[in-house]
Amino acid sequence: MPSLKDKLNRARQAMRQTGAGAEGTPLLSGSITAKARKEREFWRFQKNKGKSLAGDFVSFEASPRALRFCFISILVYFIVAVVAFSIIFEPDWTVIDGLYYAVVTFTTVGYGDLAPTTHGGQIFAIFFVLFGIAILGVALGIIGDRLVQAQEIAIGGVKSNAENRVVEMFNDDVDNQTERAGTVIEEVKEEAERSIFSDFCMLICREGPIVIVVLLLSLVIGAEEGWTYVNTCYYAIVTITTVGYGDISPQTQSMRLYAVFFIPLSVSVLASILGRIAGFYMDRQAAKHEKDFLERELTLADLSEMDTDGDGEVCRGEFLSFMLVAMQKVDKETVDQLTELFNRLDADGSGSLQKNDLMLLTRRNNLNRQGEAADSAAASQKPGTERCRDVGNMFKLLPHVCLKDIEV
Questions:
Q1: pLDDT tens, 155-203?
Q2: How many CB atoms lie within 10 A of CB 158?
Q3: How many C-beta neighbours within 10 Å does residue 4 have?
Q4: d(CA 355, CA 351)
Q5: What angle, rounded to 10 degrees, do the helices at 253-294 and 95-106 form?
Q6: Could you write out the DSSP letters of every residue in 289-303?
Q7: Ramachandran assignment for 222, one of left (phi > 0), alpha (psi -120 to 50 degrees), beta (any other)
Q8: pTM of the predicted model, to two decimals?
Q9: Which of 96, 111, 105 has the alpha carbon at shortest distance from 247?
Q10: At what angle do helices 196-225 and 253-294 cross, to 10 degrees?
Q11: Which helix (H) or strand (E) holds 272?
C-alpha cells in the first residue's frame, strides 16, 4: 500500500505533466510568492490591529462595553428594587411601583409620592440610594453623552451636505471661489472675536432640538394625567433638573411605567447639556490662557528645564513633552509611563523603534515562556522528599522563628 509521501509525489508529478505545477506554485513547491506573503502579512496586521498601538484608541465612554455596563447596571438595579420593595418590604407596591421608585431614586428626582414605610425597607433604602447615585450616576452620564453626540453628528451631517452642495454650485467660477475664500477668512476672524454670550446662544441653538423632544415627551404624561400645559411644562422642568418638589407627579400605573423610561432619558440628556455649557466656558478661558502662555519668550532656564537627558540640547520630543505638561494637556505621570513603554520596546537601545526591536522582543518573550514552562515542569517532577528537604532548609535559614509561633 503506497504511503502518503508516495501519493504526494505522484500528485506533484501529475500536476507538472499537465503544466499546472510550475515552479513557484505554493501548493506543490512549498514556497510562497512575494505577493502571497505580502497579502498574508497585510491580513495578519488587519486582524491584530485592534490589539496593537496602530489601532485607534477608544475611550471607555465611547466603547460598546460602556453601554453594556450601563444597561446591565440599570437592569440589576430594577430587579433588586422589585424584589426588595414590591415583594419583601412593601407588599402593597406593584412591580411598576418598584420600578418607578428605583428610577426616582437613582436620578435623584425624589418626588416623595412613594417611600418605604417599614424599618426594614428604610434600612435597605439607605444602601439602595447610595448604590444608585454612585453607580448609576455614571451610567446616566454615559447615556446622556451618547444621545447628545448622536444628535450633534446628525446635525453636522446635514450641515456638511448643505455646504457641499453650495461649493458644487460655485465650483466652476473662480471669482466666486475667491469671494468664498475671503468670506471664510472673515468668518474665522469673527469667530475668534466672538463673545461668551454668543457662544452660549450658539450652544443653546445646537442643543435645542433634543430639549424640545424631551418636552414633547412630557406632554404624554400631562395628557393622560389631565394636567394643563403649564402644569406639564412645570413638571418637565422640575423633573429633568432633578429638583422634584413632588407636588405634581404621575399617579396612574401606566404613566408611572412611562416615567420609568422618560425620567432617566430626560435627566441624562439635560445633565450632559449642562455639562457641555460649563465646559464651553471653561474651554474658552483655557484657550485664552494657553494663548498668553505661548506668547512668552524662551529663556535659558526653560532650556535647562526641558533638557531631561542632560546632553545640553533640547530635541523635539523633549520640547513637546515639556510643553504638554506645562499647558496641562497631560500630566507628568502619563509622560513618564509613555517614556518607560518606549524604553521597553526599544530592545536594542538605539533610541528608535525598528523591526529589529520587534524581533528581539519576540525572541525574549519566547525564551521567557520556554523558561517558565521548563521551571513548572521541573517543579512538578521534583520528588516529595526533595520538597520536604527544601522546606527544612528554609526553616534553617530562619533561626529567630520558633516552632510554637507557627500555626499549623
A1: 666 556 655 654 555 454 545 554 554 554 455 445 544 556 676 677 7
A2: 10
A3: 7
A4: 13
A5: 20
A6: HHHHHHTSPP-HHHH
A7: alpha
A8: 0.56
A9: 111
A10: 180
A11: helix 253-294
